[in-house]
């Protein structure tokens, strides 16, 4: 899917007289440093701050420069396909893209010397694994990572005989040693890695904030003014470069934790869903230790000594339940369905609708598209407009199935890592998104043309675990506790 | 018109397929004639089959088509077969490991990503594997078979080049590099970059010098190997490998095959352990192969000596002379004056009789894609045909299918 996007992207961004230069700026943790840097070189954007709700900005000083805020992980792809002339992101995402698609039309212009880190292949500090052990052994190594392409290249290079790579949305450090032998992840340095209770096996590459450019834009347009400013910023930044503070993990990766041998494993959400899940668990009467915002651990405990917990991303839970790492998990139905559409015979199933975290999954287009339903949109497509239809979404498999079911003849699914609203109308024609009130969508001048389904948090389980003697009764007991709490709203 | 074909994919048209079949038939006839039996392995395999073999370089693995199957939640990826030999080794392990010697052959497609999309990402190979025999005669056998196939295809300007993976590995061993540096060097060499050797800093200067010298030398006979053996810098381990090489090249000398020795001529496959060869025609590689005694063990079987080769079908079809266009001459078109049910029935009956007599018959009620010499028009009244010899512009009226066969089949001695 991605390959067709990358190779088929059209480049319409030559900097002709009066043409707009498009810049992709990162959301999230890189935002404030990037904003400082742009301010320092006189390229500031009023709305570019962490509180902003506007993702589309024009420069105060360079009228021909417009910028959008994207998830930093999406920036190299978007620059590569020619939707943006330039982007600022950390170079790890560029290298991940290039590891998978060496012919991508994107390259790094300059390092910005902040957000410096390394991408490491690491193992749990509790096991003593060397490169040699890894290459010699005929065991199957489980590798968890947000960087599947870099991890795969490293595995080939090290000649691992058998390995499985589990692509993750995040929290890779939580998996070893119980659910993976190896993780490929970003860390400031080896000490930062050790503070996550991981030992480095090898460093795959360095990463730091950088400016990237679309190769075709650079060949065709004249961007010297912008480039000179950005490069001067590079110097400014180098001068003010500070040594990073000592790294403290946000969530403690406690490996001295002793898992209950015959206990069942339940995955709990980190991130936005953590508060809601914690509130729900409180309602069940289960007394959690280490699963509150002020005391968050990767392996919390509770007063039920037959349950083991681990805190990971909800998006990653269905596959981790399917492969047997966990017996149960609390995640959203949206992510369960996305998994089941990818793997229809997966052993994961919904056990209890927990009722909280309600959203609806919707198909969204720009307000000025003359269609109010998917059928209307289809008629436009049949008339030759918006074809192939470009769909930006975090729910790749849900979107794919939806478009197949609706008999849309030609479409391209553009996987994103969030902030999807900003893609319409220039970088995509339709979104498959979740929404609670629809307000964010309305603020971005978008409209809903179809509701795919409603999603709430649910308890999911592995069908095999449920039948397994020794687990069966415990799972039934926990299901009962959670169901009762869900029913008393 | 906008093309809808995938980048790097290719359609094979009827004229392409005629050539493909021509090569495949020549290949299969020779193989069957030498006691090889045809197999087919599935297009999909688990990726670990190829990673555990440790025989494709990281660069090659980085270009495989791999994906998670519909039941791939366990993370086990499947690939579109990137190579023909490794699946054959698996098939042998799982089905015929008890046999002493297996002679197998196959015609298969293999897949590898190619960036520009201008080259084919799906390629075809005709492969031969001889499993279970370590004797030098088996190396000689497969080379002789490959050359016979080349001959039966009428390919000219053929050149046979020999190298020896055992010698190369022994040489690199003697450079006494650290494990990582050795692997990196091997990867470079296997990807065809011989320059990498020059850049290696070896603690064993003599060995490095010997390597450099060897790579430059090219020989024409076993005498060259004897000369190499007597060089002072050659170690005992290396001498052993040279002896192994000489035992095969000596056989080739006896059998009267001419060849040249070029150590830099192997590329790509780590799985070779002994003699390797390639066949070129006009500087174009059309076939390569060699001995791979470790592979069967590496993919989970008992250690089994083996050797084999593969013809690059896509290259071969470009240089073979196509069969003479006799087929067009043998094709008969049948049409009817009026397309009544009775006339159609009479046409089908006539066509059946002609086909049984060995002719190619095509209905041309509404026209034909073939330009054929013979066109027969079925008249409305039963048992009346007009034969039109378009080659000579002659028309003949006849009354029975046998008359038609006698006239039309006369050129090719078909029918009774």
Description:
- The complex is a heterodimer of chains A (489) and B (416).
- Chain A is α/β, with parallel strands linked by helices and 489 residues long.
- Chain A folds into four domains: 2-113 and 208-239, Periplasmic binding protein-like II (D-Maltodextrin-Binding Protein, domain 2), CATH 3.40.190; 117-204, D-Maltodextrin-Binding Protein, domain 2 (3-Layer(aba) Sandwich); 264-358 and 457-487, D-Maltodextrin-Binding Protein, domain 2 (3-Layer(aba) Sandwich), CATH 3.40.190.10; 359-455, D-Maltodextrin-Binding Protein, domain 2.
- Chain A has helices spanning 2-8, 31-40, 75-80, 91-100, 131-136, 148-157, 190-195, 215-220, 224-239, 273-284, 317-322, 333-342, 374-382, 396-405, 439-443, 463-467, 472-487; strands spanning 21-26, 56-58, 65-70, 86-90, 106-111, 117-124, 140-145, 162-167, 182-187, 198-207, 209-214, 264-269, 288-292, 295-302, 307-312, 328-332, 348-353, 359-366, 389-393, 411-415, 430-435, 446-455, 457-462.
- In chain A, the strands form five sheets. Chain A has a six-stranded mixed β-sheet with strand order 2-3-1-4-11-5. A five-stranded mixed β-sheet of chain A has the order 8-7-9-6-10. Chain A has a five-stranded mixed β-sheet with strand order 15-12-16-23-17, with helices on both faces.
- In chain A, strand 2 and strand 3 (65-70) form a beta hairpin.
- The radius of gyration of chain A is 23 Å and the shape is globular.
- Chain A starts with a helix and ends with a helix.
- Chain B is of the alpha+beta class and 416 residues long.
- Chain B folds into two domains: 14-319, BirA Bifunctional Protein, domain 2; 326-410, Rossmann fold (3-Layer(aba) Sandwich).
- Chain B contains 16 helices and 17 strands.
- Chain B has helices spanning 14-33, 47-53, 58-61, 85-95, 136-152, 165-174, 179-190, 195-198, 205-216, 222-229, 236-255, 295-298, 313-319, 326-330, 341-356, 401-408; strands at 37-38, 44-46, 66-68, 77-80, 102-111, 122-131, 158-164, 218-219, 260-262, 275-281, 284-291, 306-312, 331-336, 360-363, 374-378, 385-389, 394-398.
- In chain B, strands 1-5-6-12-11-10-7-9-8 form a nine-stranded mixed β-sheet, sandwiched between helices. Chain B has a five-stranded mixed β-sheet with strand order 14-13-15-16-17. Chain B has a three-stranded antiparallel β-sheet with strand order 2-4-3.
- In chain B, strand 13, helix 15 and strand 14 (360-363) form a beta-alpha-beta unit.
- In chain B, helix 6 (165-174) packs antiparallel against helix 9.
- The two termini of chain B are 51 Å apart.
- The model of chain B is unreliable at 411-416 (pLDDT under 50).
